[in-house]
Amino acid sequence: MKKNYLLLDKIEGSLIELSNLHHVSYDEVVEIKTRDGKKSMVGTVVKVDEDKATIQVFGDLLGSSTKNMEVTFEARPFEIPLTDEVLGRVFDGLGRPIDKGGEIYADKFYNVNGRPINPVARLYPRNFIQTGISAIDALMTLIRGQKLPIFSGSGLPHNELAAQIVRQAKISNASGEDNFAIVFAAIGVKHDEADYFREEFNNAGVSENVVMYVNYADDPIMERLIVPKCALTCAEYLAYECNKHVLVIMTDITSYGEALREVSSSREEVPSRKGYPGHLYSDLAMLYERAGMIKGIDGSVTLIPILTMPNDDITHPIPDLTGYITEGQIVLSRDLHGSGIYPPINVLPSLSRLMKDGIGEGYTREDHADLSSQLFASYSKVQEVRALSQIIGREDLSDSDKKILDFGDEFEKKFLRQRFDENRNIEETLDLGWELLKILPEESLDRIDPELKKKYLNRKVEDNKETHEEVETQSKDNK
């Protein structure tokens, strides 16, 4: 039952305090409007203490008074209407259409707060998602139902990478392209960034399979805490009720953390590391753990949160806690970006913890695991030899070390680097990896099964050897 209150105790920033309340619930939706009807906003109950409550408002309370406001408790949580018609639409941070496509009319409304998936009901992720980006597909494979964040920094091309993944992402062994959808959440972005994503999706012809939730940098900061919840609620609906495989991309989770810190400070909560609230970990976990697969349901929710690390500090609370909750990370490198390499993925600190169970025969290709391990080990050796060459010079290196340096240069130029519109399938990526390993001495390839080495590497080496022998025989005959 709705309840109206006309007398407020206190207004401070975006918070309203009331007392003498009856049957008010945490997370309950509240409508706030001036008595003349000129201003109307929405808020939620963020604190309940006996007959007192604190309301967080999604809007600007500047100039408002405790005596000219009317507060109505809606007796329901924050909900959004959802149907399969949301595909191809653009919504604001509160789930309201902003694309001039009209309102969404649905028979059912869904609570945006949701709940993490029960571990007992979870289905272990197996099938991989092909992004068309060699570094990701081969070395840190994205698995359907996984949570794999991208750790970036200010000025790095994480937006371009996100747009490329949306355009190229393809579910392995999915029953048709119509079964695949993408939910994109932009948190605290500039207007030109939001326009960039819209144009990219339209130009690529994928906008009909994309649902966008956009919170601009000049929108109320409290909305940034709702955007990811709206996006995940929509993804859950498409996955578990429409049986679609949904890829959720969020940018930028750092904006979410900053908003959480500001709201926590206004509520006078005790701060933790770097001023962030102590419940930052549980807040992030409640978002990330909503991704996954459920037994008995065909659909899935795969999550790629993108966050910019302040001062490129991977030990900052937001990336640090994100790394604990999720199943790996993709780290972007400022040095590679400065060298003109796109996408500038730093291979060594990047990993996918679910990769081992979603690759190999029946998923990608039988040689994937061994090839990935060898590429990773060889590129790790490149960093050691590069450090040594800076001390003694390249000329004084051994021949094997020089080959390692050559491998590192070619790996970055041919394997890591690719065009923004280049979409490599998994076969092309793995074949390219084998071509690069030919630069190294065969005895150094100690992480590959001999049978696989013979099948994918020695075969071509032997063919070249036979050709070379034929040329030598012909030259002797001519002499």
From TrEMBL:
Residues 357-456 form the ATP synthase A/B type C-terminal domain. InterPro entries: ATP-synt_VA_C, ATPase_a/bsu_AS, ATPase_F1/V1/A1_a/bsu_N, ATPase_F1/V1/A1_a/bsu_nucl-bd, P-loop_NTPase, V-ATPase_su_B/beta. Gene3D superfamilies: 3.40.50.12240. Residues 458-479 are annotated as: Disordered. Pfam families: ATP-synt_ab, ATP-synt_ab_N, ATP-synt_VA_C. One of its GO terms (molecular function) is ATP binding. Keywords: ATP synthesis, Hydrogen ion transport, Hydrolase, Ion transport, Transport. One of its GO terms (biological process) is proton motive force-driven plasma membrane ATP synthesis. It comes from the Bacteria. Residues 11-73 form the ATPase F1/V1/A1 complex alpha/beta subunit N-terminal domain. Residues 132-352 form the ATPase F1/V1/A1 complex alpha/beta subunit nucleotide-binding domain. Belongs to the ATPase alpha/beta chains family. Produces ATP from ADP in the presence of a proton gradient across the membrane. The V-type beta chain is a regulatory subunit. This is V-type ATP synthase beta chain. The gene is ntpB.
